[in-house]
Specification:
The chain is α/β, with parallel strands linked by helices and about 140 residues long. The protein is about 35% helix and about 20% strand. It has a five-stranded parallel β-sheet, with helices on both faces. Helix 4 links the parallel strand 3 (about 70-75) and strand 4.
Amino acid sequence: MKKVLMLHGVNHNMFGRRDPVQYGTITLAQINERLQTLAAELGVTIESFQTNSEGAMCERIHRAFEARQDAVLINAGAWTHYSYGIRDALAILECPVVEIHMSNIHAREAFRHHSVFAEVVKGQICGFGVESYLLGLRAALASF
């Protein structure tokens, strides 16, 4: 069975309470539940990991490499726009990596328009709320 890792970044533990105009009222637990349901339908396993620590995120990516993860989905939040440490950790991976954002980062503040991950990920899905996650899982699996 294919193994997918979902990485949730900084402040995502606050989904449901944080800026409902951009992110809606869905919680991180509900997002993970939706991903689990779709993964089961698609015949894959998915593990979710959330941290507010950049170092912990890099360490989890390193473990994904060592475990030969089949695919990685990442919504790194604000780290997307400046974390070269996470970018370099993602570059180590040999599996498809899909960058996900609930909001359309290209229609927001100028600093959000650029992703430092863009050069090392398979693709980016943004602007569809929780559906961005589900589309990201489907896209990662289509990359095999």
